[in-house]
Amino acid sequence: MQKIFKTIHEQIEILKFKGVQIEDEEYANKVLLRENYFFLSGYRHPFIDTQTGKYLPGTTFEEMYSLFLFDRTLRTILFKNLLIVENNLKSIISYQLSKMYGYKEVDYLKPTNFTTDPLKSRQVNDILKKMKRQVRVNANQHTATYHYMNNYGYIPLWIMVKVLSFGIVGELYTILKRKDKEEIAEIFEVESNFLETSLPLLANYRNLCAHEEIVYENRTQKKIEGTIYHALLKIDKEDGEYKKGTNDIFALIIVLKELLDNESLNNMMIEIDDAIHNLEYNLHTIPLEKILNRMGFPKEYMMIKNINKKVEE
Questions:
Q1: Could you tell me how far CA 231 lies from the centroid of its own chain?
Q2: Cα–Cα distance between 110 and 120 in angstroms, integer?
Q3: How far is CA 174 from each of CA 124, 166, 181, 194, rounded to the nearest angstrom?
Q4: Of 113, 165, 192, 237, which is the most exposed, with the fewest CB atoms less than 10 Å away?
């Protein structure tokens, strides 16, 4: 069955037919024209009765739009902090590899600079090919790479990382020698295994935020393991695994807790808390806890900013 074009008036009538209360149709008209019916309808799920498949009685257009706006605010807050971590990671990796192996791509991209694990030899070659491809593509397109290539004949790693995606930088970390991994992780004051496990989750949420996808209820394929934060916040377990904070927004918060400085982390949590309280004010049909559960947030989520990183389980 094909999806055909619907006018804004028809979209409003569909929502009303499905049980959404729309008191101000002029307001709904403006919102749908600006925001897109398809994007807004992606936020319907918390308001749907799972047994009937219909909207819960009393669901309003304004409530759905409030959740849409909350997710937009959440994306903005998370994205700016993810960019901080991305920049830090790129800077630290480029410094470590340049210090150890040289600052010209012919030196720092040698396969011998990376893990000698035979099971990762193909991965090493693939990632180095991706990086070399970035050199070719960006040498004449990116201002900094163009400057270095034309004036010096090479592109130092601290310049190259500016044109590498977060995903490629994360992959690069996985093929480093153990000593390099540990020295990089030590700067963040985390274990190298934790950093390596966290990078795919960071890259996933970074891309979701950048492309304005639904973030608040997203689940990543890869999970982080339980931490002291899970234990202290008394997050429930099921079959020996934590039910929250492993592949959801709260897992991202845990990772950012470890990688951001205290001031950035505190500011981020205050902004998120403000956004959550603003959403709560606008919810009438469903309780706030329903949204927090979809985010993987424990009830006392704000406590995380006061937990000392150095505390031992």
A1: 23
A2: 15
A3: 9, 13, 8, 12
A4: 237
Instruction: Look at the block and give the residue holding tokens 């605010």.
Output: 73
Q: What is the pLDDT of residues 216-258, one digit of tens each?
A: 999 999 999 999 999 999 999 998 899 999 999 999 999 999 9
Residue type, position 272, single letter = I
pLDDT tens string 32-70: 999 988 899 999 999 999 888 899 999 999 999 999 999
The answer to whether residues 242 and 230 touch, using CB atoms and an 8 Å cutoff, is: yes
In this prediction the pTM is 0.93
Question: Residue 183 and residue 120: Cα distance in Å, rounded?
Answer: 20
Of the candidates 149, 74, 142, 67, which has an alpha carbon nearest to the alpha carbon of residue 105? 149
Q: Choose among 85, 66, 5, 63: nearest CA to 37.
A: 5
Using only C-alpha atoms, the chain has a radius of gyration, in whole angstroms, of 23
Find out whether 215 and 132 touch, Cβ atoms under 8 Å: no
